[in-house]
Amino acid sequence: MEKFRWCFIGTGKLGHQVAGQLLASGRHEIVSCYTRNMDNAKAFAEEFHCKAYGSAEEAILADGVEGVYVVTPHNAHFRYVKEALELGKPVLCEKAFTVTAEETDSLIALAREKKVYLAEAMWTWFSPAANQVKLWLMEDKLGKVTDANFTYHMKSVKYAPRVSDPKRAGGALLDITIYPITYAYRLWGYPVKIESSGTIENGIDYGEDVMLTFENGLTARISASIVDMKGLEKMTISGEKGKIQASFYHATNQVTYKKNIFHKEVFKGPGPRINSYLDEFDAVAEDIRAGRLESKMVPLQATSDVMHILDRVRKQIGLEYTELE
Description:
This protein is an alpha/beta fold and about 325 residues long. It folds into 2 domains: about 5-125 and about 275-300, 3-Layer(aba) Sandwich (Rossmann fold), CATH 3.40.50; about 130-275, Dihydrodipicolinate Reductase, domain 2 (2-Layer Sandwich). Helix content is about 35%, strand content about 30%. It is built from 10 helices and 14 strands. It has an 8-stranded mixed sheet with strand order 8-9-10-7-11-12-13-14, with helices on one face. Strands 3-2-1-4-5-6 form a 6-stranded parallel sheet, sandwiched between helices. A hairpin with a 4-residue loop joins strand 12 (about 240-245) and strand 13 (about 250-260). Helix 4 packs parallel to helix 5 and helix 8 packs across helix 10 (about 300-315). It is globular, with a radius of gyration of 20 Å.
Protein backbone atom coordinates (compact mmCIF):
# COMPACT_ATOMS: atom_id res chain seq x y z
CA MET A 1 0.00 0.00 0.00
CA GLU A 2 1.22 3.50 -0.82
CA LYS A 3 2.44 5.45 2.18
CA PHE A 4 0.00 7.95 3.68
CA ARG A 5 1.33 11.50 3.39
CA TRP A 6 1.12 13.96 6.29
CA CYS A 7 1.60 17.64 6.95
CA PHE A 8 2.76 18.39 10.50
CA ILE A 9 1.68 21.66 12.10
CA GLY A 10 3.89 21.80 15.18
CA THR A 11 7.35 20.32 15.59
CA GLY A 12 7.82 20.03 19.35
CA LYS A 13 8.67 17.00 21.50
CA LEU A 14 5.45 15.13 20.78
CA GLY A 15 5.72 15.92 17.08
CA HIS A 16 9.19 14.36 17.06
CA GLN A 17 7.98 11.25 18.89
CA VAL A 18 5.09 10.73 16.49
CA ALA A 19 7.14 11.47 13.38
CA GLY A 20 9.80 8.95 14.35
CA GLN A 21 7.25 6.19 14.82
CA LEU A 22 5.39 7.00 11.62
CA LEU A 23 8.50 6.86 9.47
CA ALA A 24 9.79 3.73 11.19
CA SER A 25 6.52 1.94 10.39
CA GLY A 26 7.06 2.28 6.65
CA ARG A 27 3.34 3.05 6.23
CA HIS A 28 3.50 6.84 6.54
CA GLU A 29 5.63 9.72 5.36
CA ILE A 30 5.77 13.40 6.21
CA VAL A 31 5.60 15.72 3.22
CA SER A 32 5.61 19.13 4.88
CA CYS A 33 5.86 20.87 8.22
CA TYR A 34 5.28 24.28 9.75
CA THR A 35 6.02 25.92 13.07
CA ARG A 36 6.42 29.59 13.88
CA ASN A 37 10.15 29.21 14.52
CA MET A 38 11.66 28.57 11.08
CA ASP A 39 14.90 27.20 12.51
CA ASN A 40 12.91 24.55 14.39
CA ALA A 41 10.90 23.77 11.26
CA LYS A 42 14.06 23.32 9.20
CA ALA A 43 15.65 21.06 11.82
CA PHE A 44 12.49 18.92 11.91
CA ALA A 45 12.38 18.80 8.11
CA GLU A 46 15.99 17.65 7.91
CA GLU A 47 15.46 14.93 10.51
CA PHE A 48 12.24 13.57 9.02
CA HIS A 49 12.90 14.15 5.32
CA CYS A 50 10.17 16.65 4.56
CA LYS A 51 10.01 20.30 3.52
CA ALA A 52 9.65 23.20 5.94
CA TYR A 53 7.36 26.05 4.93
CA GLY A 54 7.12 29.63 6.10
CA SER A 55 3.34 29.54 6.58
CA ALA A 56 0.79 27.00 7.69
CA GLU A 57 -1.18 27.49 4.47
CA GLU A 58 1.82 26.60 2.30
CA ALA A 59 2.52 23.49 4.36
CA ILE A 60 -1.12 22.37 4.32
CA LEU A 61 -1.40 22.83 0.54
CA ALA A 62 1.96 21.23 -0.25
CA ASP A 63 1.86 18.69 -3.08
CA GLY A 64 0.81 15.23 -1.97
CA VAL A 65 -0.54 16.09 1.50
CA GLU A 66 -3.45 13.77 2.38
CA GLY A 67 -3.90 14.67 6.02
CA VAL A 68 -2.88 17.43 8.45
CA TYR A 69 -1.71 16.59 11.96
CA VAL A 70 -2.02 19.52 14.38
CA VAL A 71 0.37 19.02 17.30
CA THR A 72 0.88 22.55 18.64
CA PRO A 73 0.13 23.63 22.23
CA HIS A 74 -3.60 23.61 23.04
CA ASN A 75 -4.14 27.32 22.54
CA ALA A 76 -3.21 27.11 18.83
CA HIS A 77 -5.29 24.07 17.89
CA PHE A 78 -8.39 26.03 16.95
CA ARG A 79 -6.71 28.42 14.51
CA TYR A 80 -4.75 25.74 12.63
CA VAL A 81 -7.55 23.17 12.48
CA LYS A 82 -9.87 25.89 11.20
CA GLU A 83 -7.34 26.93 8.56
CA ALA A 84 -6.85 23.36 7.34
CA LEU A 85 -10.60 22.68 7.17
CA GLU A 86 -11.20 25.89 5.23
CA LEU A 87 -8.51 24.75 2.80
CA GLY A 88 -10.33 21.45 2.40
CA LYS A 89 -7.74 19.20 4.07
CA PRO A 90 -8.57 16.33 6.47
CA VAL A 91 -7.34 16.96 10.01
CA LEU A 92 -6.19 14.89 12.97
CA CYS A 93 -5.82 17.18 15.99
CA GLU A 94 -4.07 16.30 19.23
CA LYS A 95 -5.90 16.29 22.52
CA ALA A 96 -7.07 18.48 24.13
CA PHE A 97 -8.96 19.15 20.93
CA THR A 98 -9.39 22.83 21.73
CA VAL A 99 -9.44 25.05 24.79
CA THR A 100 -13.23 25.26 25.12
CA ALA A 101 -16.29 23.31 24.04
CA GLU A 102 -17.46 26.30 22.03
CA GLU A 103 -14.31 26.13 19.90
CA THR A 104 -14.70 22.37 19.46
CA ASP A 105 -18.32 22.60 18.37
CA SER A 106 -17.43 25.41 15.96
CA LEU A 107 -14.80 23.24 14.27
CA ILE A 108 -17.14 20.25 14.09
CA ALA A 109 -19.79 22.41 12.45
CA LEU A 110 -17.22 23.72 9.97
CA ALA A 111 -16.00 20.22 9.11
CA ARG A 112 -19.55 19.07 8.46
CA GLU A 113 -20.31 22.16 6.40
CA LYS A 114 -17.18 21.67 4.29
CA LYS A 115 -17.59 17.86 4.26
CA VAL A 116 -13.99 17.43 5.39
CA TYR A 117 -12.65 14.71 7.70
CA LEU A 118 -11.93 15.73 11.30
CA ALA A 119 -10.78 13.62 14.25
CA GLU A 120 -9.19 13.91 17.69
CA ALA A 121 -5.88 12.20 18.44
CA MET A 122 -6.72 10.63 21.81
CA TRP A 123 -4.71 7.41 21.87
CA THR A 124 -6.60 5.88 24.83
CA TRP A 125 -9.54 5.24 22.51
CA PHE A 126 -7.29 2.89 20.54
CA SER A 127 -5.94 1.01 23.57
CA PRO A 128 -6.51 -2.77 23.52
CA ALA A 129 -6.43 -2.70 27.33
CA ALA A 130 -9.10 0.00 27.53
CA ASN A 131 -11.17 -1.98 25.03
CA GLN A 132 -10.80 -5.06 27.26
CA VAL A 133 -12.06 -3.13 30.29
CA LYS A 134 -15.15 -2.10 28.35
CA LEU A 135 -15.64 -5.70 27.19
CA TRP A 136 -15.40 -7.05 30.75
CA LEU A 137 -18.06 -4.57 31.86
CA MET A 138 -20.30 -5.52 28.93
CA GLU A 139 -19.83 -9.20 29.90
CA ASP A 140 -21.01 -8.33 33.43
CA LYS A 141 -17.75 -9.53 34.98
CA LEU A 142 -18.23 -7.15 37.89
CA GLY A 143 -21.99 -7.36 38.25
CA LYS A 144 -23.29 -4.02 39.49
CA VAL A 145 -20.41 -1.54 39.51
CA THR A 146 -20.24 0.08 42.93
CA ASP A 147 -17.15 2.26 42.78
CA ALA A 148 -14.67 3.70 40.29
CA ASN A 149 -11.48 5.58 41.15
CA PHE A 150 -8.98 7.18 38.80
CA THR A 151 -5.81 8.97 39.88
CA TYR A 152 -3.26 10.68 37.67
CA HIS A 153 -0.51 12.51 39.52
CA MET A 154 2.79 13.57 37.98
CA LYS A 155 5.20 16.49 38.30
CA SER A 156 4.81 17.52 34.67
CA VAL A 157 4.92 21.17 35.62
CA LYS A 158 8.68 20.70 36.24
CA TYR A 159 9.70 19.25 32.89
CA ALA A 160 7.15 20.57 30.38
CA PRO A 161 7.27 24.40 30.24
CA ARG A 162 4.04 24.64 28.22
CA VAL A 163 2.16 22.96 31.11
CA SER A 164 2.93 25.90 33.40
CA ASP A 165 2.27 28.58 30.79
CA PRO A 166 -1.18 30.26 31.04
CA LYS A 167 -0.62 31.81 27.60
CA ARG A 168 -0.67 28.31 26.14
CA ALA A 169 -3.66 27.04 28.17
CA GLY A 170 -1.33 25.17 30.52
CA GLY A 171 -2.46 23.30 33.59
CA ALA A 172 -3.73 19.90 34.64
CA LEU A 173 -7.19 19.97 33.09
CA LEU A 174 -6.30 19.88 29.39
CA ASP A 175 -3.05 17.98 29.87
CA ILE A 176 -3.82 15.04 32.19
CA THR A 177 -7.27 15.33 33.79
CA ILE A 178 -8.69 14.86 30.31
CA TYR A 179 -7.47 11.23 30.36
CA PRO A 180 -9.53 9.86 33.29
CA ILE A 181 -12.52 11.96 32.24
CA THR A 182 -12.32 10.50 28.72
CA TYR A 183 -11.87 7.00 30.14
CA ALA A 184 -14.95 7.29 32.37
CA TYR A 185 -17.00 8.81 29.55
CA ARG A 186 -16.01 5.95 27.27
CA LEU A 187 -17.22 3.39 29.80
CA TRP A 188 -20.42 5.02 31.08
CA GLY A 189 -21.34 7.89 28.78
CA TYR A 190 -22.18 11.48 29.64
CA PRO A 191 -22.55 12.08 33.40
CA VAL A 192 -25.79 13.37 34.88
CA LYS A 193 -23.91 15.22 37.59
CA ILE A 194 -20.45 16.83 37.70
CA GLU A 195 -18.84 18.08 40.92
CA SER A 196 -15.34 19.55 40.93
CA SER A 197 -12.78 21.32 43.07
CA GLY A 198 -9.32 22.45 42.12
CA THR A 199 -6.21 24.45 42.91
CA ILE A 200 -5.30 27.45 40.75
CA GLU A 201 -2.02 29.32 41.04
CA ASN A 202 -0.23 31.66 38.65
CA GLY A 203 -3.05 31.44 36.14
CA ILE A 204 -3.05 27.65 35.76
CA ASP A 205 -4.80 24.77 37.48
CA TYR A 206 -2.42 22.55 39.43
CA GLY A 207 -4.98 19.79 39.83
CA GLU A 208 -8.59 18.73 40.17
CA ASP A 209 -10.77 16.40 42.20
CA VAL A 210 -13.81 15.49 40.12
CA MET A 211 -16.85 13.34 40.81
CA LEU A 212 -18.84 12.19 37.79
CA THR A 213 -22.22 10.60 38.54
CA PHE A 214 -23.80 8.54 35.79
CA GLU A 215 -27.33 7.51 34.95
CA ASN A 216 -26.82 4.07 36.52
CA GLY A 217 -26.08 5.74 39.86
CA LEU A 218 -22.33 5.09 39.76
CA THR A 219 -19.99 7.89 40.83
CA ALA A 220 -16.49 7.88 39.35
CA ARG A 221 -13.93 9.73 41.47
CA ILE A 222 -11.04 11.40 39.71
CA SER A 223 -7.93 12.97 41.23
CA ALA A 224 -5.32 14.64 39.02
CA SER A 225 -2.28 16.80 39.70
CA ILE A 226 0.71 18.19 37.82
CA VAL A 227 2.66 19.13 40.98
CA ASP A 228 2.86 15.93 43.06
CA MET A 229 3.29 12.20 42.65
CA LYS A 230 0.71 11.17 45.27
CA GLY A 231 -1.26 8.25 43.91
CA LEU A 232 0.68 8.21 40.62
CA GLU A 233 -1.61 6.85 37.88
CA LYS A 234 -4.00 4.10 38.91
CA MET A 235 -7.51 2.91 38.10
CA THR A 236 -9.76 0.66 40.17
CA ILE A 237 -13.31 -0.25 39.16
CA SER A 238 -15.12 -2.30 41.79
CA GLY A 239 -18.33 -4.29 41.58
CA GLU A 240 -20.35 -6.97 43.34
CA LYS A 241 -18.40 -9.76 41.61
CA GLY A 242 -14.86 -8.40 41.64
CA LYS A 243 -12.72 -5.50 40.46
CA ILE A 244 -10.64 -4.30 37.53
CA GLN A 245 -7.29 -2.63 38.13
CA ALA A 246 -4.60 -0.99 36.05
CA SER A 247 -1.57 1.22 36.55
CA PHE A 248 -0.72 3.91 34.00
CA TYR A 249 -4.18 3.17 32.59
CA HIS A 250 -4.23 5.86 29.92
CA ALA A 251 -1.38 4.17 28.06
CA THR A 252 -0.89 0.68 29.48
CA ASN A 253 -1.52 -2.50 27.57
CA GLN A 254 -2.19 -4.56 30.71
CA VAL A 255 -5.27 -4.71 32.94
CA THR A 256 -6.30 -7.18 35.63
CA TYR A 257 -9.69 -8.56 36.59
CA LYS A 258 -9.82 -10.00 40.11
CA LYS A 259 -12.82 -12.11 41.09
CA ASN A 260 -11.34 -13.00 44.47
CA ILE A 261 -7.93 -13.78 45.99
CA PHE A 262 -7.90 -17.13 44.19
CA HIS A 263 -9.07 -16.06 40.73
CA LYS A 264 -7.76 -13.34 38.46
CA GLU A 265 -7.43 -12.71 34.74
CA VAL A 266 -4.64 -10.60 33.29
CA PHE A 267 -5.06 -9.10 29.85
CA LYS A 268 -1.83 -8.24 28.06
CA GLY A 269 -1.81 -6.55 24.71
CA PRO A 270 1.21 -6.40 22.38
CA GLY A 271 4.11 -4.69 24.13
CA PRO A 272 4.16 -2.99 27.54
CA ARG A 273 2.08 -0.02 26.37
CA ILE A 274 -0.28 0.94 23.60
CA ASN A 275 1.28 0.48 20.15
CA SER A 276 1.92 4.11 20.69
CA TYR A 277 0.66 6.44 17.98
CA LEU A 278 0.58 4.03 15.06
CA ASP A 279 -2.82 2.51 15.81
CA GLU A 280 -4.59 5.85 15.63
CA PHE A 281 -2.62 7.11 12.61
CA ASP A 282 -3.23 3.87 10.72
CA ALA A 283 -6.94 4.09 11.51
CA VAL A 284 -7.21 7.74 10.48
CA ALA A 285 -5.33 7.10 7.23
CA GLU A 286 -7.75 4.27 6.45
CA ASP A 287 -10.73 6.50 7.31
CA ILE A 288 -9.57 9.29 5.03
CA ARG A 289 -8.80 7.02 2.08
CA ALA A 290 -12.18 5.34 2.55
CA GLY A 291 -13.89 8.74 2.22
CA ARG A 292 -15.23 8.89 5.78
CA LEU A 293 -15.80 12.27 7.41
CA GLU A 294 -15.05 11.26 10.99
CA SER A 295 -13.30 8.55 12.97
CA LYS A 296 -14.98 5.23 13.59
CA MET A 297 -13.05 4.98 16.88
CA VAL A 298 -13.41 8.54 18.16
CA PRO A 299 -16.72 10.01 16.98
CA LEU A 300 -16.94 13.79 16.90
CA GLN A 301 -19.86 13.65 19.32
CA ALA A 302 -17.56 11.99 21.86
CA THR A 303 -14.94 14.70 21.38
CA SER A 304 -17.62 17.36 21.88
CA ASP A 305 -19.06 15.63 24.94
CA VAL A 306 -15.69 15.37 26.68
CA MET A 307 -14.93 19.03 25.96
CA HIS A 308 -18.30 20.00 27.49
CA ILE A 309 -17.43 18.00 30.61
CA LEU A 310 -14.05 19.76 30.80
CA ASP A 311 -15.82 23.10 30.40
CA ARG A 312 -18.09 22.29 33.34
CA VAL A 313 -15.11 21.35 35.49
CA ARG A 314 -13.22 24.48 34.46
CA LYS A 315 -16.12 26.75 35.36
CA GLN A 316 -16.73 25.00 38.68
CA ILE A 317 -13.12 25.48 39.82
CA GLY A 318 -13.03 29.08 38.59
CA LEU A 319 -10.42 28.61 35.87
CA GLU A 320 -10.42 31.17 33.05
CA TYR A 321 -8.15 31.23 30.03
CA THR A 322 -7.67 34.98 29.83
CA GLU A 323 -4.00 35.24 28.83
CA LEU A 324 -3.92 33.08 25.70
CA GLU A 325 -1.55 33.99 22.91
